[in-house]
Design brief:
197 residues, Helicase, Ruva Protein, domain 3, Dna Topoisomerase Vi A Subunit, Chain: A, domain 2, two-stranded antiparallel sheet, 6 strands, 11% strand
Length: 197
């Protein structure tokens, strides 16, 4: 069976999304086509509206419909900034209500194998914001990959001349885990980051 060209195009568009393979893309395309027309119209309208209205905040590079974003406006004057890889990394902090400072979306981490170098990240804007707003603490929340570690090391080196405290999220053994199932690197990091009781 040969799919119509417009259906093939829809499958290709879905397949271009992260984490969506060809089979899932085809299922999504069929699902959309099987929906009543008014449902597909509302989906199309929601995508178009989001693409039109949602922009990057000029201060933190997160998504917002206004510039600066509501968080940058509400927390202006805060002296701590949490650096994350992507916008969705902000949500766990906000949902938990554990952090009330500023954020900065770096736009990724260094990954030479993927062709992502320092020039592809918002590092210069981060350094400038730290200087302009006299930030006292930078909290790195970039994950625990070697790429994230090298990104943190580069930024740390670039901040060497500034009197700003630099911290990163603790790493270790997840709650409810058994040691025998934990990989060596996680055990090592947990051991190195041990705290008093």
């Amino acid at each position: 069976m040969v799919e119509p060209p417009s259906l093939e195009k829809l499958v290709r568009e879905f397949a271009s999304l992260p984490g969506i393979g060809k089979k899932t893309a085809r299922r999504l395309a069929y699902f959309v086509l099987n929906r009543p027309r008014e449902n597909t119209d509302s989906l199309t309208q929601a995508i178009a509206e989001a693409c039109e209205k949602v922009k990057r905040c000029s201060l933190c590079h997160s998504f917002a419909e206004e510039d600066p974003c509501p968080l940058c406006k509400a927390r202006a004057g805060s002296k701590s900034i949490c650096v994350v890889e992507k916008f969705s990394d902000i949500l766990p902090f906000e949902n938990a209500g554990i952090y009330h400072g500023l954020y900065f979306v770096l736009g990724g981490v260094l990954s030479p194998l993927d062709g992502i170098g320092p020039e592809h990240l918002h590092i210069p804007q981060l350094i400038q914001r730290i200087q302009d707003e006299k930030i006292e603490e930078i909290i790195f929340a970039l994950g625990s990959s070697p790429e994230a570690d090298s990104t943190i090391l580069l930024i740390d080196k670039l901040l060497a001349h500034l009197p700003v405290k630099r911290t990163s999220l603790a790493r270790g053994i997840p709650m409810g885990s058994e040691l025998e199932y934990i990989d060596e690197v996680t055990v090592l990091r947990a051991f190195e980051s041990r705290t008093g009781i």
